[in-house]
Design a protein that fits this description.
The chain has helices at about 25-35, 45-50, 80-95, 200-215, 235-255, 280-290, 300-305, 305-320, 330-345, 470-475, 485-500, and strands at about 15-20, 35-40, 60-65, 70-75, 95-100, 110-115, 120-130, 130-135, 150-155, 165-170, 175, 180-185, 190, 220-225, 265, 270-275, 350-355, 360-370, 375-380, 385-390, 395, 400-405, 415-425, 430-435, 440-445, 445-460, 465. The protein has about 500 residues and is an alpha+beta fold.
Length: about 500
Amino acid sequence: MRGDTVTFFSSEPPYRYRIRGIYSTAISKILIDEGQLLSLPTPKIRERLDLPPQYGISPADATIKDLPSLQAVLTIGWKQPVELCVNLLKQHLETIFFHISPYSLHAIYKGIVRSVNADQGYAEIQITPTKVAKLFIKNPNEHSLQIGEPLLVGINRAPLTPEDPIELTMAPKLVGRYAYILFEKPIVILSPFIPKHTHDALIRFGKELIAELKEKIPIDWGIRWRSAAITTTEKELKREIEMLLDQAAQILKNYENAPDSEPIELHHGESIAVIGFSHLEKRQLDEIRNKVVPTVPGHHEFKSSGTYHQELVEFSELMLSRKEFMTHRDVLGKVLREYTLDKLKETKYFRIYHGKPTGKTYYLRSGVILELTSDHIIVKRTFDKKGVFNGLNVDREEGDYDIVYVPLTSDFMGDWWYKHDYYSSEGTLKGTYYNLNTPIELTFNGMRYIDLLLDVVKRPGENPKLVDLDEFEAYYEKGIIPHKYYLKVKTLAYELMRTLP
């Protein structure tokens, strides 16, 4: 039983995509070549893709934008356009990492209260037969929540990765193209991206609609205008609000009619997918972008490494746009990599950006560079606290240190692995850990990669062994680790097992 009686997105392709961020030109090129449309393209994209002035003024079916790490993009919107975007990028890039969240933003449920933790300010609500999520409220006792009773809740924060928690709200939202309907909040609010000179008119019109249509659903409700609201007429805005209220009425009716004994999804909300790019996919995106505008090799890798790199890339591509430099694309790319290596020699602390296939990035303890040549980097990391060397299951003492060996290829890139040798403070080897990963990218202050979960460890006097094999297989089965990477890493792992002394 569902309340999805109204469709606000294009029911059939082509879908409309709003694309922002450092990957926008290449992704726009892919989607347009596949017959899809852009929504509200930026002036630069209009110019590069030669789009007419009135092209793309309709609101998006899905939005694609950078995650803060710049190593992945977030796709959010209606279910079918999000899934199509993932599939098209998979076809063109082959080895992308992706995760489509099973729990959608603003999904609405008839949940069941499973616990009330008044002291900690939250209740636990079961929203599916296998999922319990937290509902944070200032004083659960004030809401008279009773264990076992049903409760209308919405997802206020959806998980981007399998490890992320879900946050619920007792004031769900219904999403349209131009507005949200806010359950239990009789207010009018605006997107921060709406120009100030339109604020008064939109707030006034929203209040008029609430007064006129107040009785359409049996609860208080409000409006949050989206940025696309300024692109259409008041007549169209009113029509959408009426459609959203009809949908809300159906959801509330379904809530009342559904059994009180089990949770049920009443409304799907907006789908979310995280699509991650390693060194290899960034290289492919470089070539796609180069078909649109002169692009230096390494563009997306450098752009995702920070502001300083971004400025160098923009300067290099300004040179590439000049006729006298057009034939020197590969030379400029090589010079940028050599410059990166030179700047890396000057860094005080060598940082390790340890990405996960789900899109998250962790920062390992920094170290100092002992040696840097054209074919390897050696870094020393010293530990100041007790703990355990993961994978080896060996105690770590204060003063223990790690000698990190990073092999480099002929184009100043890292390999599919690097090595940790862990020592006691007296210099006794405690164990060796081979980290298997996507080809390493060098930055001005360290290196980054996507960890591929499967690793090889060896303690002195013992045979090498695989670690995290079960997690590696599980992520492959879920489709998070691409097949090509799965085969590459498994082959490499067993080769290391065979050849290590």
